[in-house]
């Protein structure tokens, strides 16, 4: 044993084996010897993909990698929505109605008919209660039907695939298929039957051309405000929005629907964990689900229902991502029907997972309270199992308050090569009734003009050091006249932070040609609560992890020092 011990010391084994550490004290005095019996231990929370037992007769179920990813279509095993855990707990969306605001639904489809809620459906394009898609030779109006199947396709009927919430009800709101949109059509759609419809899923928005800045008009804004305040008996309608398909040429903070505090903005990842090439990045994205892969594998798309009783493997885009999220939220609502619209956002932040999501440009970071986020993926991919378990025991979040933290009103010039840096010091309305202690959403309301709007870059840093990219360069945006007029750039990245202190706004230009501009206004709006016990616990856990990390570093240094001393001693003895 002595020779073995010396040999292992020399190999560096000593510092890594806790059983040997005791020998430092006794220094080779063996008191007792016991034969050890082996037994089994398992990592808690680890899910072996081969151990999942979900039996479905639907022919496309095994192709639905976003539900259970076993590596289909060159994907990464385990990278999915973890719906299997939610289903095994008994949650399938029963009693929840999701409205698909789109180009209509093929409600005669055999995989949708049994879950179709006709009473909650309407056609605002034709003004009748039958939102069936208008026929075109190229099946252009298949969008809504595909989205509906992701949410509510029936299970075990030998047709197509399975919806995320396969026992939920789906309503069709046809509102996209007309020559142009109007404020009243959008407002009517968003406010349709808010006491019956629980979740509204929208896979549309302003044109994703990299040069449009647009959002909801007056009536639609009022309808959304009424929805979150009065819908579902006062618990609030839940609006799920696709973050956009403009890719690196666009920024979803220029989309006033996706960047609204009242919506849950959903981005997408592909089946190997990377961002899709069409994904837009922005600080308002809350979480992610899945869309089609980058590779040309014919089964890497999203499998769902299609027009006229057909099925498809080719649904894609963040259009596919938003309905998946709506399905996950339906599972959570079944677990706890009392969840408010804000509860759903908190649950999304707390239970979404980094999993194996990654991007070459935007790295994962932690905000001031230790919550991990990504500029593309938000707080990560939705975890249905984790969400329903937390939802069951969830207590409604405290009252929400709004604070105008400060404002810069005088004009400031911006020039290429020099960043404009402005600061606002705030106490977050401390001492007043609307004091905000724990952040939810933060808005930077900005008025700025530039010789080329697309070259503008805006960053904001919180008092706790979290940097949000409010606006990225949009190379296709040549605007030199309109700029941004009181535009509410929004970030969710400072969720849970203490807003008191100095906020810093940096405005500059990116691009090859020199540009100039004027920032006329920056108003800082804080939205959040005065108490949030779970945030305090997260902070304690984060600080404990940091302390443990530092302790491990010190112990490693001590181990190395002891190892060097022992090696020196052994060398001298030899």
Automatic annotation (TrEMBL):
It holds the Pfam family P_proprotein. Residues 396-532 form the P/Homo B domain. The active site is at 102 (charge relay system), 143 (charge relay system), 319 (charge relay system). It is found in: Secreted. One of its GO terms (cellular component) is neuron projection. InterPro entries: Galactose-bd-like_sf, Kexin/furin, P_dom, Peptidase_S8/S53_dom, Peptidase_S8/S53_dom_sf, Peptidase_S8_Asp-AS, Peptidase_S8_His-AS, Peptidase_S8_Ser-AS. CDD domains: Peptidases_S8_Protein_convertases_Kexins_Furin-like. It comes from the Eukaryota. It is an enzyme of class 3 (hydrolase). It catalyses: Release of protein hormones and neuropeptides from their precursors, generally by hydrolysis of -Lys-Arg-|- bonds. GO terms for molecular function: serine-type endopeptidase activity. Keywords: Cleavage on pair of basic residues, Disulfide bond, Glycoprotein, Hydrolase, Protease, Secreted, Serine protease, Signal, Zymogen. The keyword Protein biosynthesis does not apply. Its main location: secreted. Its EC number is 3.4.21.94. GO terms for biological process: peptide hormone processing. Belongs to the peptidase S8 family. Furin subfamily. Serine endopeptidase which is involved in the processing of hormone and other protein precursors at sites comprised of pairs of basic amino acid residues. Responsible for the release of glucagon from proglucagon in pancreatic A cells. This is Neuroendocrine convertase 2. It comes from Salarias fasciatus (Jewelled blenny). The lineage of its organism: Eukaryota, Metazoa, Chordata, Craniata, Vertebrata.
